[in-house]
Each structure stands twice: as structure tokens, then as C-alpha cells.
């Protein structure tokens, strides 16, 4: 018969020493796991965890788990943001100096009027001017501004529904610069913190097309633009398409943009209007020019500069399951090289001002 005492005696180890060894081993394992959790948060990044996180925590910036497991070194991030901002500002100044002689831009040598600032939103309490460009996280920036009014029933910007933002909240609670007198506009342009965000122009065009005509189709766009586009650029269009304007193709949309008659009749809709026509970077001396490509870091930096990071968090932008580059390549493969060039020419000032390369699809 083997007993615990016989086994222990065979090794000539006292029971107290065995216990001490066991407790020491347990302590070592606990310390090791604790160290991994603190210094190597990706230790927990198992496939199961990532799946659950993507499924249940779309707005992970608001998640305490995310903040603990994936802390960000804001000192290093902000150092990079400042350097990028310096280069962006220099680029805008250089291009503006080159373009001023053309007379195509609103510059400080020209007289401005309130309607020039139709894309600007004002927060007088915090001293902020934001130039809104659709399809460049503009909805989320409006959510942030709405939370800052203190009139929302939440402090979490991502809780504000998109439909409510556009149909109710923005018209009721946000101030637009175009309704101020020119003296009041000039005073705010000189003293307020001014920022804008841009995006690769080709990517934004595609995003606007998909959003306005297909993903969340708006009847106004189908009736105002869809029917006209189908009628002008589709041969043998069906009666249903002519009546509803519901099945516009990307190629037809591009033809509409490139048609000289389009802009001669009416200015572009803001969803595909040129950045420089809305935000006037050669007239407004921006404190910050952000980019969609570096949105998270740039947004955090703006909130930090305004001293409001403790009041509001910028909503997370859900990342598509398919790479943006793959989507762009697929859609723009339908467009001829000649029309790609013409599109680039149409938006060439934006490409130049904000240092985006010639499209390569």
C-alpha cells in the first residue's frame, strides 16, 4: 500500500517543504500572468476574444476593456500628429500661394460674404469653428458638437441616431456661420479654433455615391439626381428606372460629374463638391487640418486641444470587412483611364492642396 507519508518519506522531503514549493509555484504563475496582462495586452488577443469583441463592442473606444487592454501612448501619438500637421499646413500655404494668382479661390484678397461659409458650424461656448465635409466623418463631428451643447440626454456621442442628428438635432441645436453678420464671422475666424477634415477625393466620391444612391438611399437624391442621370446617360432606359432613378450605376454617376452642363446649371451637391469650395483653406487660417486616413489620432488631438476629451469621446468608425483599396479598384475599373484623368482634373485643386497622389487603380 502506498500512502502519502510513504511517498513523502521516500523522497526524504518534509510535508511543510512540499507545501512551500507548491505555494511558490502558484505565486510564480500568478506573477507571470499579471506581468503579461500589464505589459503584453495582446496576450489576450485570442481568436475567440477578437470575434466576441468585434461582434459585441462596435464602439470599442467607449469600452473600459479596450482602454485597459490596449492603452495608447498619447505622447508619441501627438508628436506624430503635430509633425503631420506642420507638413499639411505648409503644403496648404505653398499651394495657396501658387493658386492665388489664378483667381479661382476665395483668398484674403477677395471680399467674402456669409454664404461662403455655408459649411461651417459654430460652438460659441467653446470657441470652435468646424467646416463640415460630407463623407469625411462629418456626422460624427456633428454628434460631438451636439453633445457639447449640453442639451442632449446623453454624453456619449455614438448614442445619437443618425436620422435624429440630421432631421431634428442639427437644425435645432447647432449654429451655422452663414447666419452671422460679416463682422461676427470675421471675429470668429480670427479668434476661434478652426478645423476641418479631408479624405482621398476618389474614395470620398465613391462613398458618396454608395451612400446616397444605394446603402441608405434617399428619395430626394433618387428623384433629384437619379432620374436625371438615368435619362441623360443611359441608353434604352426602362420606364421604371426613368420614373424612380433607383438603379444609377457608378459609371453613370461619373458621367454626370464630368458633364460640363452639370456645374453650369447648378453648383455641385455638397456630397461631391470640392473641398476648397466649401472650406476655403486659402482664406481661413485653420488650426488643424485632419485626414480620414488618420482619423482616430487626429480626432483625439482636436478634442485634447480644445480641452474637451473628458466631456466627449469621438465615435468609432466601423471598419469595413473588405479593404477600401479593393473596393476602389473594383468600382473604378469600370471607369476608363481617360475619365479617371478627367475626374482627377476636376478635383485637382483638392488633390494638390491636401497632398493626395494621382489615382492608381
Describe this structure in words.
There is one protein chain. Helix content is 55%, strand content 6%. With 361 residues, it is mainly α. The chain has a 5-stranded mixed sheet, with helices on both faces. 23% of the residues are buried.
First-last Cα distance: 79 Å
Q: Spell the H/E element sequence.
A: HHHHHEEHHEHEHHHHHHEHHHH
What is the strand tally? 5
- Name the average pLDDT: 84
* Structural class designation: mainly alpha
Detail the poorly predicted runs. 1-13, 35-69
- Major β-sheet annotation: 5 strands, mixed
> What does the radius of gyration come to?
28 Å
Shape: globular
Number of distinct helices: 18
Q: Tell me roughly what share of residues is in helical segments.
A: 55-70%
Strand fraction equals 5-15%
> What spatial order of strands do you see in the largest sheet?
3-1-2-4-5
Gist of the model:
The chain is mainly α. 55% of the residues lie in helices and 6% in strands.
Features:
5 strands, disordered N terminus, single chain, 361 residues, 5-stranded mixed beta sheet, mainly alpha, 18 helices
Please specify the SSE layout and strand pairing.
Layout lengths: L3 H8 L3 H25 L7 H10 L7 H6 L4 H26 L20 E4 L4 E4 L6 H11 L13 H12 L1 E2 L5 H10 L1 E6 L2 H15 L3 H15 L5 H6 L5 H9 L1 H6 L9 H5 L8 E4 L3 H11 L18 H9 L4 H10 L1 H6 L8
Parallel strand pairs: 2-4, 4-5
Antiparallel strand pairs: 1-2, 1-3
Helix pairs in contact: 6-7, 10-12, 12-17
Amino acid at each position: 500500500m502506498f500512502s502519502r507519508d510513504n511517498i513523502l518519506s521516500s523522497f526524504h522531503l518534509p510535508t511543510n517543504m512540499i507545501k512551500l514549493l507548491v505555494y511558490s509555484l502558484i505565486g510564480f504563475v500568478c506573477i507571470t500572468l499579471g506581468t503579461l496582462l500589464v505589459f503584453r495586452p495582446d496576450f489576450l488577443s485570442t481568436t475567440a476574444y477578437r470575434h466576441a469583441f468585434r461582434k459585441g463592442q462596435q464602439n470599442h473606444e467607449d469600452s473600459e476593456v479596450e482602454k485597459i487592454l490596449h492603452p495608447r501612448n498619447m505622447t508619441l501619438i501627438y508628436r506624430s500628429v503635430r509633425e503631420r500637421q506642420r507638413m499639411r499646413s505648409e503644403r496648404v500655404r505653398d499651394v495657396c500661394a501658387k493658386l492665388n494668382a489664378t483667381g479661382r479661390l476665395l483668398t484674403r484678397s477677395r471680399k467674402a460674404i456669409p454664404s461662403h461659409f455655408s459649411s461651417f458650424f459654430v460652438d460659441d461656448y467653446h470657441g470652435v469653428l468646424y467646416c463640415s465635409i460630407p463623407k469625411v466623418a462629418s456626422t460624427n463631428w456633428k454628434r460631438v458638437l451636439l453633445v457639447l451643447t449640453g442639451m442632449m440626454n446623453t454624453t456619449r456621442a455614438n448614442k445619437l441616431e443618425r436620422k435624429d442628428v440630421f432631421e431634428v438635432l442639427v437644425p435645432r441645436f447647432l449654429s451655422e456661420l452663414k447666419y452671422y453678420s460679416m463682422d461676427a464671422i470675421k471675429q470668429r475666424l480670427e479668434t476661434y479654433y478652426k478645423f476641418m477634415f479631408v479624405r482621398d477625393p476618389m474614395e470620398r466620391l465613391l462613398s458618396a455615391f454608395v451612400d446616397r444612391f444605394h446603402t441608405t438611399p434617399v428619395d430626394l437624391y433618387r428623384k433629384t439626381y437619379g432620374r436625371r442621370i438615368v435619362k441623360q446617360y443611359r441608353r434604352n432606359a426602362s420606364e421604371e428606372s426613368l420614373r424612380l432613378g433607383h438603379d444609377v450605376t457608378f459609371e453613370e454617376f461619373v458621367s454626370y460629374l464630368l458633364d460640363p452642363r452639370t456645374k453650369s446649371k447648378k453648383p455641385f451637391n455638397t456630397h461631391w463638391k470640392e473641398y476648397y469650395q466649401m472650406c476655403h483653406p486659402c482664406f481661413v487660417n485653420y488650426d488643424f487640418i485632419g485626414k480620414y486616413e488618420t482619423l482616430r489620432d487626429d480626432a483625439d488631438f482636436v478634442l485634447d486641444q480644445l480641452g474637451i476629451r473628458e466631456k466627449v469621446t469621438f465615435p468609432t468608425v466601423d471598419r469595413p470587412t473588405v479593404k477600401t483599396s479593393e473596393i476602389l479598384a473594383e468600382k473604378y475599373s469600370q471607369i476608363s483611364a481617360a475619365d479617371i484623368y478627367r475626374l482627377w482634373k476636376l478635383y485637382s485643386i483638392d488633390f494638390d492642396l491636401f497632398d493626395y497622389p494621382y489615382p492608381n487603380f
